[in-house]
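B., you asked whether I could sanity-check this one before it goes into the benchmark set. Here's the sequence:
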Amino acid sequence: MEGLMLAQVLRDLGSLLPARHLGWAFPDETTSALLLGGPDGAVLGNLVLSYRPPQPALFISRERLRGDPKNGFQRYLAARVRGELLRVEQLKLDRVVALHFAGEAGFIDQPPARLLFEVTGRNANLLVLDEGEGFTGRIALAAREITGSRNRFRTVRSGGTYTPPPPYEKFDPRIMTEREAASLAALPVVNWRDRVDGLGPLLSAELARRANMTLGQAPGDQWPAVLAALRSLVADPSVSEGALQGGAREAARAEKAASLRKLLREPLDKRLTLLKNQLGDVTRAEQGVELAAQDRLEADLLMAYAHDVPAGTPQVTLPAFDDSRDVPISLEPQLTALQNAEKRYTRARRREEVYERLAEREESLRAEFQAAQERLGRLDHADLGELEALAAELESEKPEKSAYGARFTTPTGFEALVGRNNKENATLTHRVGKSLDWWFHAQGYPGSHVLVRTGGKELDLPDILYAAQLAAAHSKARGSSNVPVDYTRIKFVWRPKGAPAGQVHYTDQKTVFVDGSLPD
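And here's what the prediction gave me:
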């Protein structure tokens, strides 16, 4: 149900209040019906609250409804929500309704209570609140408990404090002025519901029909026709059959698009953050090249003036080769001048190698970053077809994964599994792998265990080199050349007693040397 439809039901109900409470009936486990009576003893009908997602409803029925409580919530409702129904209220024109009950004196007095109905599609809920005003208060019991694992933005738990949906600013169609309507003239009719309270897909379709326009048409100078149609919709929010069918289709598509948009945003945000961090690594590597140049200069000076550097000194000042200035150099006192120079050469070489490796990827990283930004920018305005195409595109880009590590296929068709953390390394090596399967690991470097499942068969050289490259690329030696990788049968790999997950010893290994990059 949409906001204006709810407002109409509450107007009809308000004319009957206060009404006597003649008892609850429960036709099914998500429907509660309150039989109402007038002051003269006449039966007014059933107020039906159907809170089954995704299509909850609130309406008055003259049909005779029966049924005992089907669950604990309904038993609580029948026992505790008693007395006259005094009044009802709606949160703006949102799909949130509060029903106020007077309570009842008896053998066990029942205090006044509020019944709060969230008629909100997939998040539909019915809650019993303590007596109070407005739309906040302590939740005595909820039909559906909403925990942080289900919704990280809003929880609904018995005993907690109820928080209504987030506030919003929209035009109220019941008091909407011509000036406000004119401000929406450039907006397609289908988008008026983003600015006008109480409208949803069904009523938007009916609004377009009554204004004699299409949903995608912006009214322009014809905005008075849309305003007149909107005012008629406030008075009578019924929907014609044609608009009902079109609105239902649009509602289904809009709900699917909203769900897909939310699903796609998280991986795109994560991808953008990752690429931003990787480009930051490139920037830091560029700064490292400048430091490497300083290291080399200091190392060259130490080599040239080694005989002038006193042993055990923590700092020395040496003249630059062009005699333009003096260069202060910090030293490790326990090392000789030549050893200090060698450490600087090694550090400079490492920084330069890191930069060269990252510089090769900079162009592709920037292209990926721009593409991710464009995708994220399109997300808010994409229709369902575009969203589905984007979802398929992102799915095709995902690396194939298994429950136990990342999965690859060797040149001759064997499955190769790569552990993504210590727990997966241990699982692959000690639980998944059979005794005659092959195990690979970069020699002397922390990294992934690679398991090649052959069923006891021997490995050809292309398969050995492929799996070895996987092991090197998924280790601390990634990007290096001539990385030693050990391989052996699983039966020769064991975990030492008391060792942490992923730590192993092995024997009967052979070693190959490969580049630390992913194989083609």
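One thing to flag: The mean pLDDT is 89. Otherwise nothing jumped out at me.
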